[in-house]
Amino acid sequence: MTDMDRVEELLDRLYGAEDDEETEQLAREVLALDDDNVEGLMLLADVVPYSEEKIGLLERAKGILEADSDDIPSLDTSDPEEQERCSLYMAVLQRLGFAYFSEGRHEDALDLTIGLLDLDVDGLTLARSLYYRILIEMKRDRDVLEATMNDAERSASMLHSKAIALWRLSGPGDDAYMALWEAFRAAPLVPFYILGYFDEPDEEDVDRTEEYNLALFFEDAWSSETGLLNWLAQGTILLGLAASLFPREDTEKMMILADALHIADSVEDAMVRLESRQDWAARTTDERIDAAVALFVQGRYLPRDES
């Protein structure tokens, strides 16, 4: 068996590795045989904590892919090998963008992510979510709003970024209020995870795990200012009580918090309106959330800046 045959065998095992320890061992074996193996570098980086070491591995993988051709890889080709190379290139760029962001290298992360967005015309990566999150971290709120106006995809990341940007620019006014409920509608459980009201879901629950991961991604942004976090808490407690999302034993505690956040009257009004509807108790959780958010959008259920 040649070294390259051995590398292919190790890569097959590497993609099926069951834990980080096995992944690291196999990736290092690959790189011992082929120190320029991009997949080995990328998968080793996956199990290295966010650090300059991770960045170094990914920058090396990026450089190797770029050196293989005079052109930047593109999916706009009928050549299967070129398509595979571009997919690998985008996977490396995405990881490197997140690594730059995690290490506080926001300008580097932004430049790289803009390039990835140009490549990823089909939205196969998390580039757009990362783009919005970087802009929020850099407090480029007007750029966030400009980007949202040209974004046909109403993703949860975009909507959370829009709500944060509007609050920071003009406080909890009408535009921010509507943006907040758009964000809730797109991913209702994200704020509950951010605030610690709900526990981490089981990995088998794909939808809830996706919302939990989004919550982790935006937790620092929402927590960056006390007023902003309190505004999110107002909306979360209002929705949680009105749509009966909290365990029954937590209801009294949440009503106390609602009173402290000056929304107790709004909560009681919303609960009366919703619970008086036909078959309210028989509705699913998603149906109750949809009905509650629709009610909030039509009225004034959170304190708003009138200026």
Secondary structure topology:
Elements: H1 3-15, H2 20-33, H3 38-46, H4 52-67, H5 80-102, H6 106-119, H7 127-137, H8 141-149, H9 156-170, H10 174-186, H11 190-194, H12 206-222, H13 226-242, H14 251-260, H15 264-275, H16 285-298
Helix pairs in contact: 1-2, 2-3, 3-4, 3-5, 4-5, 5-6, 6-7, 7-9, 8-9, 9-10, 9-12, 10-16, 13-14, 13-15
Describe the structure.
The protein has 16 helices and no strands. It is mostly helical and 307 residues long. It has a domain at 152-307. Helix 3 (38-46) runs parallel beside helix 5 (80-102).
Give me a quick take on this structure.
The protein has 307 residues and is an all-alpha fold. Helices cover 69% and strands 0% of the residues.
List its salient traits.
mainly alpha, 307 residues
Task: Tell me the span between the first and last alpha carbons.
Answer: 75 Å
> What's the alpha carbon Rg, rounded to whole Å?
23 Å
Query: Could you tell me the strand content as a percent range?
Result: under 5%
State the helicity in percent bands: 55-70%
- Overall geometry comes to elongated
**Annotation, overall tally of beta strands:** 0
Determine the structural class based on helices, strands and strand pairing: mainly alpha
Give the averaged pLDDT, no decimals: 92
Could you list the spans in which at least 5 consecutive residues all have pLDDT below 50? none
Q: In DSSP terms, counting alpha (H) and pi (I) runs of 4 or more, how many helices?
A: 16
Order of secondary-structure elements: HHHHHHHHHHHHHHHH
The largest sheet is: none
